[in-house]
């Protein structure tokens, strides 16, 4: 997969924040050396967060997020825009808080942003724009604890320095073994079970399958891709026992029955629970299933929006499997895409997808937000293995996690 085709979920997310007309869009154009953001003297040109996948040297694949002005308050629509801007902080790996160097009278909104970044433990940079128009040393005395970087989006002065600072702040490195590679050694055989049904995208594999195959190859191991009905015959034809079988969680039960007990088994979703989230916390969430009562509210959340099939995993299969396992009826609530509910006062359990379309930054924010509210959270693959009675086997590749679960 070339850098130009790097999925958004694997790119560094850089959010650009500030008041209206401080030059956020111009700054993005200068940073990318392209005219990719609409620039206007009219306040409020950017009304919603705009995500732009781009390559920035020396950073590599990035997503720049152009946000609405944080001072666009006073109307219902304006307040909604500001809230969406604040929600972007959860998605960012680093924030750029941009100032107009000529506007030195009131920093209330900027202080609010700084407070939010500190609260959420996110790195940020303070950047003073339009230095070619004016330079006032008093401006920099307003921020005693934070360094203020000076740039001109018009002349490009200071832009290269900002790129270098972003790179050094994030310590961006090529991540090898993102998904499964640390479990493998060269020439290990990995069998990947990928059902091809009406829910499968035409002409391609889904993102978790693609990334897992790439990671196996990066590890100098051998990947064999089969459909669930081909697994038994494929294993019988291999002269060497595979190190690991990885399956789509929806066929966990059949694949477990067809995989010899001396071959480790897990799912794409569980691997991504480790890659994108907190496997230990998600495993603990599975135990909460036993304490649920009929009528309890369960939130099923997915990181992307997609066309739901008649036997959709989130709205049909998981509710059915939970009823079969517990003998109880629950009230299910659903969310999808980049939005995540804020009011979960009546929720007893959150069930999340594998988060292949979310960054690790956002998935960890969701896990921590739920954890802080005292609500257990589990993901699709872990829950499915639990209710289908193959939970401990699915955790076998992760002995430390299995040991923690056994101790609990």
Topology:
Blueprint: E1 12-17, H1 24-32, E2 50-56, E3 60-66, H2 76-88, E4 94-100, H3 108-119, E5 124-129, H4 137-141, E6 148-150, H5 159-170, E7 189-193, H6 207-218, E8 222-226, H7 231-237, E9 244-247, H8 252-258, E10 264-267, H9 268-276, H10 279-287, E11 297-302, H11 313-326, E12 331-336, E13 347-352, H12 360-372, E14 377-379, H13 380-387, H14 391-394, H15 399-407
Parallel strand pairs: 1-3, 1-4, 4-5, 5-6, 7-8, 7-9, 9-10, 11-12, 11-13, 13-14
Antiparallel strand pairs: 2-3
Notes on the protein architecture:
With 408 residues, this protein is α/β, with parallel strands linked by helices. The chain folds into 3 domains: 3-170, P-loop containing nucleotide triphosphate hydrolases (Rossmann fold), CATH 3.40.50; 181-270, Rossmann fold (3-Layer(aba) Sandwich), CATH 3.40.50; 278-407, Rossmann fold (3-Layer(aba) Sandwich). Helix content is 35%, strand content 18%. It has 15 helices and 14 strands. It has helices at residues 24-32, 76-88, 108-119, 137-141, 159-170, 207-218, 231-237, 252-258, 268-276, 279-287, 313-326, 360-372, 380-387, 391-394, 399-407; strands spanning 12-17, 50-56, 60-66, 94-100, 124-129, 148-150, 189-193, 222-226, 244-247, 264-267, 297-302, 331-336, 347-352, 377-379. Strands 2-3-1-4-5-6 form a 6-stranded mixed β-sheet, sandwiched between helices. Strands 8-7-9-10 form a 4-stranded parallel β-sheet, with helices on both faces. Strand 13 (347-352), helix 12 and strand 14 (377-379) form a beta-alpha-beta unit. Helix 11 (313-326) packs parallel to helix 13 (380-387). The longest helix has 14 residues, at 313-326. The chain is globular and about 75 Å long. The model is unreliable at 38-42 (pLDDT under 50).
């Amino acid at each position: 997969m070339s850098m130009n085709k790097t999925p958004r979920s694997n790119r560094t997310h850089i959010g650009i924040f500030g008041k209206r007309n401080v030059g956020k869009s111009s700054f993005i154009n200068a940073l990318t050396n392209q005219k990719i953001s609409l620039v206007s003297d009219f306040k409020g040109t950017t009304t919603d967060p705009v995500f732009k996948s781009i390559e920035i040297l020396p950073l590599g694949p990035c997503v720049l997020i152009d946000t609405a002005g944080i001072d666009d308050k006073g109307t219902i629509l304006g307040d909604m825009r500001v809230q969406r801007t604040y929600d972007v902080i959860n998605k960012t790996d680093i924030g750029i808080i941009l100032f107009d160097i000529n506007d030195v009278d009131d920093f209330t909104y900027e202080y609010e942003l700084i407070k939010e970044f500190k609260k959420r433990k996110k790195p940020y940079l303070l950047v003073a724009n339009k230095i070619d128009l004016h330079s006032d040393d008093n401006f920099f005395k307003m921020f005693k604890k934070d360094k203020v970087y000076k740039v001109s989006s018009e002349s490009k002065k200071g832009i290269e320095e900002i790129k270098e600072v972003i790179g050094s702040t994030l310590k961006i490195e090529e991540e090898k073994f993102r998904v499964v590679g640390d479990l493998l050694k060269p020439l290990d055989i990995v069998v990947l079970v990928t059902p091809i049904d009406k829910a499968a995208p035409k002409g391609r594999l889904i993102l978790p399958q693609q990334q897992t195959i790439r990671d196996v190859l990066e590890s100098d191991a051998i990947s064999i891709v089969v459909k669930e009905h081909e697994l038994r015959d494929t294993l019988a034809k291999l002269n060497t026992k595979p190190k690991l079988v990885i399956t789509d969680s929806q066929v966990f039960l059949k694949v477990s029955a067809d995989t010899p007990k001396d071959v480790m088994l897990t799912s794409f979703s569980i691997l991504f629970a480790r890659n994108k989230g907190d496997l230990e916390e998600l495993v603990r969430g599975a135990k909460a299933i036993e304490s649920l009562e009929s009528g309890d509210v369960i939130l099923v959340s997915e990181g992307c929006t997609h066309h739901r099939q008649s036997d959709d995993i989130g709205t049909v299969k998981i509710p059915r499997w939970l009823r079969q396992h517990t003998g109880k009826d629950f009230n299910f609530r659903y969310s999808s895409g980049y939005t995540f509910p804020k009011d979960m006062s009546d929720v007893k359990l959150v069930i999340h997808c594998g988060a292949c379309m979310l960054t690790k930054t956002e998935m960890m924010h969701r896990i921590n937000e739920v954890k802080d509210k005292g609500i257990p959270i589990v993901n699709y693959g872990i829950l499915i293995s639990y209710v289908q009675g193959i939970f401990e086997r699915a955790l076998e590749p992760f002995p430390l996690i299995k040991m923690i679960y056994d101790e609990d």
